[in-house]
Amino acid sequence: MTTKTERQTWSSRLTYVLTVAGATVGFGATWRFPYLVGENGGGAYVFLFCVAMLLIGIPMILVENVIGRRIRVNAIDSFTGKINGKPIPSFWKLVGYLSILGSFCIMAYYMVLGGWVINYIVSLFGGSLDISQPITAEMTKNFFQTTVMDNPALISLYTFIFVLVNYIILVKGVIDGIEKSVKYLMPLLFIFLICMVIRNITLPGAWEGIVFYLKPDFSKITPQLFVFVLGQVFFALSLGFGVIVTLSSYLKKGENLVQTAVITGFVNTIIAVLAGFMIFPSLFTFGIAPNSGPTLVFQSLPIVFSHMWAGKFFAIIFFSLLLIAALTTSLTIYEVIITAIQEKTKINRRLAILIVLGAIFILGNVPSILSYGPWHDIRLFGKNIFDAFDFISGNILFMLTALCCAIFVGYVMKEEAKRELRLAENSKLASWWFNYVKYVVPLVIIVIFISNLL
């Protein structure tokens, strides 16, 4: 097992919370959440998302916090050691390997989305995406097709640039690289987000979009939708990714895990909800359908910006916000794999980073890019390579990892899990959380897992 004598710690709770918030914001809050809201009843989805965050999100953040800080090592070795004087069976390390594999799969396509965003920013600056005059849906569809789908060389270049930015930050380490970057990136993300929200809610006719977004139509709330929303919470919080387990391994032993879990869940929810405010008012103002699906950001919003005063400026701000959110997430997911490789093999950090980023780029990013071009006929689970990576990571690997984490806490750590919370002896909160995680959470995850595969 890995030694941990020289392991660093976060400089403060705020920097940890900001880093975890950055890890959990990403495209889940700024790209995926808004289009899912549009497809699933607006306010009904938002209401269920907030409920699901309380029921499954925060309890599961605490599960991964407890596992990560227990012996303060990488995501694989976090499932080793002794509990109550007895060695943990070695097969539990497979949970850590599942999280590593899942992180690889998500980064295989996630970085490509970053390349798409860079393409839009460059095109807006250069004028090849001209929104100085109102444009049509056909124009945005053609732009997306020609510059993203049909131009693998260009997207490969932009994806490589995004990978290179990650490398420059990661090579400085967890504290000097990730923590210091997040200190600047997260406030910048908030500033951009607030600017976009203010601009959108002050548009003529914005109220209709706000009502759609916030007023739940309870007739649209079904058990199937609630299960679907529960699954989105796992994606939104990076649960099962190994991210929170890894980041928590840098927490001080005296840190209040309950408070950090609540704050993390609250911040993620606020950012996700704010992301909707910067989108839906403008959609209704300019008569754009809110249920555009995954292409909402890339094909529908440019139309909105083309009708807006100073549209180019706000479009650049918006896509820059997406890129910052993607960067704060990619750094931490990369770190899950880097920390594991570095500690398991004892190689230096720079080499570990080169291996991880290089392998994911060659084996994941490039195939994902080519899946919309020369390799479009290659199918896995009936999906192209890009979508297959998304499906395998989000619907299979992360669900299995999260399920095993809950079982590990409830049936292996047992009383040690409650002690790790550092709450008062016989704390009702610790007992309630433990029993909830032991008996309820696994059943919920199994239901989500089965529904995702049907």
From TrEMBL:
Primary subcellular site in the record, as a coarse category: membrane
Location relative to the cell: Membrane
Xref: InterPro entries: Na/ntran_symport, SNS_sf, YocR/YhdH-like
Keyword Transport recorded: yes
Pfam family for this entry, one: SNF
Transmembrane regions listed in the UniProt entry: 12-31, 43-63, 94-118, 153-175, 187-207, 227-251, 263-289, 309-339, 351-372, 392-412, 433-453
Keywords attached to this entry: Membrane, Symport, Transmembrane, Transmembrane helix, Transport
Topology within the bilayer: Multi-pass membrane protein
The UniProt record lists the keyword Transmembrane helix: yes
Gene Ontology CC: one annotated term: membrane
PANTHER family for the chain: TRANSPORTER (PTHR42948:SF1)
UniProt record similarity statement: Belongs to the sodium:neurotransmitter symporter (SNF) (TC 2.A.22) family.
Protein name per Swiss-Prot or TrEMBL: Transporter
Source species: Gallibacterium salpingitidis
